[in-house]
Design brief:
Distance between the termini: 63 Å
Number of strands: 15
Radius of gyration: 22 Å
Order of helices and strands: EEHEEHEEEEEEEEEEEH
Strand content: 35-45%
Length: 189
């Protein structure tokens, strides 16, 4: 999960999953990794550039609006020597061919399988076809007006938190209205 915090005055701290491309870009921007904090530190004036790097590497940045979604893999997803990432969230992260894989923070595997694979030199992080996840913080900008996001490989839908009792009351009201319509039709005969 991508997170940002103010760090010692005018600096920003970025917490992100390991990704070789981000590490390279962070070094080029003069970022420093603080092992004790577990975050990258950048001058605050570079926030926009840091957000652009995070967008290009992870597909998200920690400052944009987020929502909870359900994600389904319509085909096998794989990443070579790194995590499978969607919307800035780690779906599967292996460390070697035989390490197995883990989901990232804020990601919950509901069904399916994540695993490691490939060869010792070219290991993979894998998500099997039809795997389903719930993601706590997915970028809202990726969703359309219906709260969905589709690619050839993914199907994503926003999860709307609605009180179950409100749903039951609404369904009852629809049924009562329909019964009134049926009664009116029967009386007309």
């Amino acid at each position: 999960m991508l997170r940002a915090k103010n760090y010692k005055g005018d600096q920003i701290g970025i917490f992100s999953p390991y990704h070789e491309d981000f590490v390279d870009a962070a070094h080029k921007m003069g970022g420093r990794f603080h092992r004790s904090e577990g975050c990258w530190v950048f001058p605050g004036r570079h926030r926009e550039q840091v957000a652009n790097i995070l967008q290009s590497v992870y597909g998200a940045d920690p400052w944009e609006p987020k929502c909870r979604v359900r994600l389904k893999a319509k085909e096998e997803l794989r990443a070579n020597k790194g995590p499978v990432v969607e919307g800035g969230m780690v779906l599967a992260n292996a460390r070697s061919r035989d390490s197995g894989a883990r989901v990232g923070e804020g990601v919950h595997l509901l069904s399916g399988e994540i695993r490691s694979g490939g060869s010792a030199a070219h290991w993979l992080s894998l998500v099997t076809e039809d795997s389903e996840f719930e993601i706590d913080e997915f970028p809202v900008r990726l969703l359309d007006e219906a709260g969905e996001y589709h690619t050839e490989a993914l199907e994503v839908r926003a999860v709307h938190d609605v009180d179950a009792m409100d749903e039951l009351r609404a369904e009852r009201a629809r049924l009562v209205a329909r019964i009134a319509e049926i009664d009116a039709l029967l009386e007309a005969d």
